Amino acid sequence: METGRPIVAIVGRPNVGKSSLFNRIVGNSRQQSVPISSQQEPTVKNRPSRKYAVVHDTPGVTRDRNYADVEWENRAFTIVDTGGLDIDPDDRLIDNVQSQVDAALAEASLVLFVVDARTGIMPHDMVVVDKLRSADKPIFLVVNKVDSDRFQNEAAEFYALGLAEPMWTSCVQNDGIRELLDHIVETLPETDETVHDMPATMKIAIVGRPNVGKSSLINSLLGEERMIVDDRPGTTRDAVNIRLVHDNVPFEVVDTAGMRRKSAINDELESATVQRAIHSIRQSDIAVLVLDVTQDVAQQDKTIANFIERQGKASVLVMNKWDLIDKDSTTHPAFMDAIDVQLPQLGYVPRVFVSALTGQRVTQILTTALEVYREYCTHIPTPALNDLLLELRNVHPPPRVKGARPALKYITQVETKPPTFLIFGRNVHRVQQPYESYLVNNIRKEFGFHGTPIRIFYRRS
Question: Domain extents for the chain?
Answer without folding.
Answer: 7-187, 202-376, 382-460
